[in-house]
Write a structure and sequence with these properties.
- The chain folds into two domains: 3-22 and 84-302, Rossmann fold; 46-79, no CATH class.
- It has 303 residues and is an alpha/beta fold.
- The longest helix is centred in the C-terminal third of the chain and has 25 residues, at 245-269.
- The chain has helices spanning 3-8, 11-28, 64-70, 105-122, 148-157, 167-177, 194-206, 219-223, 245-269, 283-302; strands at residues 47-52, 74-78, 85-91, 126-132, 136-143, 183-188, 210-217, 230-233, 240-243, 273-278.
- It is built from ten helices and ten strands.
C-alpha cells in the first residue's frame, strides 16, 4: 500500500475494521450491506417473478416458502440487481483544521472516508469522492475495483482545509451530477447556515438518494472545557475573541445542544441518518455503533 493509505488507515485500524466486517456479514450478509430495497447499503432488490431452479443458480435465491407448498425449487428473480453507488462528500473548509487532541476534524474525516471506502470496495460496491469548501475542489469518479482505494486516498491527502463553506451550492451540484440514485455520505463539522444545509439535504432526498450525515466535532467544541483568560482565533474570517471561557460555557453549551437537537429533528423528519462523532472516538467504535443503528432501522421497518 502507498504512504497515503498508511496516513489515513493504519494497519491496526484495518485489522479492527476487518473483524467488524466479518461479524457484520454473519448478520446482514456484508458490512454495511443488505439493508435496503433500493438506495441503502448492499444490492438493489425489486422482486419481479419466479422461475424454476437450474443447476448453477445461487441457492440463496431459492424461495423456500414456494418449495414447502409445491415441493419444487423456484428462484426469485429481480427487476434490478446492482451494486451500491456511494458518494463520499467531505468538507475541507477552514474550520475543519481545528484540533485539541490527536486528530484534527479534517484528519478524522479523511480517516473515516478511508475506512468507508475500504469496506465498500471490499464488497465490490462503487465509491466516488467529492471534496469541497466554498466550491468543489476535487471529484473522483465511482469505481468498484480494489485499486480505486489508493486513488481516493491520494485525493484526500493532497488537500488542505481552507476557505469558507457554501453548503447549499455544493449539495445542489452533487444532486445535479448524481443522476443515478444511490447513497450520499456527507462528512462535515456542519458549521454552516442551517437554511442552506436543510435545503440541500432535502434536495438530495427529493432526488431519491439515501443520505448519511456524519457530524464531526472536536471534544472542545462540545465540552468547551477551557479556563483562564483565553484568546480564540476565529476560522473562516470569523474574527478573534479574548474572554473568560468559564463565563460563556453554560450559554455556549446550551446553544450547541440546541443546534444538535435541531439537526436530529430535521434528519429524523427527512429520513436522513445522522450521527455526531467526537474526534476522540475510536474509528471501529464509530462504525460498530453505526452498523448497529442500521440493523435496528432494518428491524423496525420489517416490523
Amino acid at each position: 500500500m502507498s504512504k497515503n493509505f498508511r496516513k489515513f488507515l493504519k494497519p491496526e485500524e484495518i485489522s479492527r475494521i476487518s473483524r467488524l466486517e466479518v461479524q457484520a456479514r454473519q448478520v446482514v450478509e456484508g458490512f454495511l450491506s443488505g439493508m435496503h430495497r433500493s438506495p441503502y447499503f448492499g444490492q438493489s432488490i425489486e422482486f419481479l417473478q419466479h422461475r424454476e431452479y437450474v443447476a448453477g443458480d445461487d441457492i440463496r435465491r431459492i424461495d423456500w416458502k414456494a418449495w414447502s407448498k409445491t415441493d419444487r425449487f423456484y428462484i426469485k428473480q429481480y427487476q434490478e440487481d446492482t451494486n451500491l453507488r456511494t458518494t463520499l462528500v467531505v468538507d475541507l473548509s477552514e474550520s475543519m483544521q481545528f484540533c485539541s487532541g490527536k486528530l484534527s476534524k479534517y484528519e478524522y474525516a479523511c480517516t473515516l472516508s478511508a475506512a468507508l471506502s475500504y469496506l465498500l470496495l471490499r464488497q465490490s460496491d462503487s465509491v466516488g469522492l467529492v471534496t469541497f469548501d466554498d466550491a468543489i475542489r476535487s471529484r473522483i469518479e465511482h469505481r468498484s475495483q480494489q485499486t480505486h482505494l489508493n486513488t481516493m486516498l491520494a485525493a484526500l491527502a493532497a488537500q488542505e482545509p481552507a476557505a469558507k463553506t457554501d453548503i447549499f451550492e455544493i449539495l445542489k451540484q452533487v444532486a445535479d451530477e448524481q443522476s443515478r440514485r444511490g447513497m450520499i455520505v456527507l462528512i462535515s463539522d456542519l458549521f454552516v447556515p442551517r437554511p442552506g444545509l436543510f435545503k440541500g439535504l432535502n434536495l438530495l432526498r427529493f432526488r431519491g438518494h439515501d443520505v448519511l450525515l456524519f457530524h464531526i466535532l472536536d471534544d472542545q467544541e462540545l465540552d468547551f472545557d477551557y479556563s483562564g483568560t483565553t484568546k480564540f482565533e476565529g476560522l473562516e474570517a470569523s474574527g478573534d475573541l479574548v474572554c473568560d471561557p468559564r463565563s460563556l460555557r453554560e450559554g455556549y453549551q446550551a446553544a450547541m445542544q440546541a443546534y444538535l437537537a435541531e439537526l436530529r429533528r430535521f434528519c429524523s423528519r427527512s429520513s436522513i441518518d445522522y450521527q455526531t462523532i467526537r474526534t476522540s472516538e475510536h474509528l471501529d467504535a464509530v462504525l460498530s455503533h453505526y452498523l448497529n443503528h442500521r440493523i435496528g432501522m432494518r428491524g423496525s421497518v420489517r416490523k
